[in-house]
Every structure is written in structure tokens, then in C-alpha cells.
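Example 3.2
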Amino acid sequence: MAAHGATLEFEYDEPARARTVADSVAREIGEIDDGRSRTTIDLEESVVRLEIEAADPVALRAALNTWLSLVDVAERTADVGDRVRSRPET
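Structure, written as C-alpha cells:
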């Protein structure tokens, strides 16, 4: 299938943030994959790496859009969690 591919790497200041993002998006591995694209995820220290393989450019574009959106949501959710945790208790 791997006629087309892309690697997305996201580097974070803290390994804990990378782990949070990786854990969030890893839940979708296998759920989103279909006959036209497949994705794997790897976490190394503070870097989350997504390897996307696709049968054609259209499937690659769709997979890239999906994974970029999922990572964006995971990052924004982690930011909200950080803000909530850093609030002084009342």
C-alpha cells in the first residue's frame, strides 16, 4: 500500500506533555485506518512521531488532515488541563 507516505513529528518542552498527546491520539490508531491509509505512532522522550502510509495522494491528504486535527485537539485539551491545575484553590 505504501505508495505515498509522510512523517509528522511534534516536539514538546516536557516528556510528560509528549506522553499526554501521544496517549490521546494513540487511541485512534487502527480506528481511523482503512484500506487506503495506515498510521503508526512512536514516542521518544519529548517527540511524538506519526508515520502515515497511503495508497494515493488523496488518502494521504485526508490522513494528514485527520491526524493534524487530532494532535491539535490533544494539545489544546492538555493546555486547558494545565491552566485548571495551575489555578489557585479558593
